[in-house]
Amino acid sequence: MSIFGRKTATETVFDAGTSAVSDLTGDYTIDSSHSYIGFSARHAMVTTVRGAFKEFEGTAHLDTTNPAASSVRLVIQTASIDTGSADRDGHLVSADFFDAAAHPEIVFVSTAVEKVDDDTWAVTGDLSLHGVTKSLTIAFDETGSAQDPFGNLRVGFEGGTAINRKDWGLTWNAALETGGVLVSEKIKLDFDISAIKSA
Question: Is residue 16 within 8 Å of 28, Cβ to Cβ?
């Protein structure tokens, strides 16, 4: 486990990551077709419902010598939410939740970056969601670097955090007869990022 209480990349069932470079310093663009931005929430206090955003773009500048000089910017299209249920997705983009018509983008812009250990970065930034901007910190573990068959240098990161959706004004809920609520206030966010270094 990492110091943030999450499983690290080495604890997965996948093959070990590769290392094409020892210094990740440079400018990168997120490859959205090979990346994942997902979330999970408890439903009816008994199960976990998962979803993801299908449309997003982002850039990062990494500086391993001076991590504080690093930066990240991510823009997610709110209406691209996908939980595997058209009815649920329709409810989530409605005014009850994300209100995608009024708030078409979810934006994260870093305000501070630090290197926690050899493989872990802590990225603090402003998350603008549903018309509210609040700071949060996301821990990212390096999962490797590779030269792909198309000449791209790729780096990988896995990260996650938990937020209380009410802090961003997402307050809709329904009480259960047995106690508790239909949708948990705490939401887990998960990131699997593949980024391509700029030439």
Answer: no
Q: pLDDT tens digits, residue range 24-40?
A: 899 999 999 999 999 98
Question: Which pair of structure tokens corresponds to residue 155?
Answer: 């780096």
- The per-residue pLDDT of the chain, averaged, comes to 86
Residue 100 CB: number of other CB atoms within 10 A? 19
Residues facing 59 on adjacent strands: 29, 73
191 burial type by CB count under 10 A (0-12 exposed, 13-18 middle, 19+ buried): buried
Q: What is the pTM of this model?
A: 0.84
Parallel, antiparallel, or unpaired: how do β-strands 47-53 and 81-82 relate? antiparallel
Structure-block tokens of residue 145: 């670097």
Higher-scoring residue by pLDDT: 47, 176: 47
124 in Cβ contact with 111 (< 8 Å): yes
- Domains in the chain: ranges and CATH: 1-8+27-56+73-81+95-192 (2.40.128.110)
Between CA 124 and CA 115 the distance in angstroms is 12
Q: How far is CA 76 from the centre of its chain?
A: 10
The number of C-alpha atoms within 13 Å of 12 and in the hemisphere containing its C-beta is 10
Give the list of residues 6+ apart from residue 108 with CB closer than 8 angstroms, or none.
72, 73, 74, 125, 126, 127, 128
CA 106/CA 128 separation, integer angstroms:
6
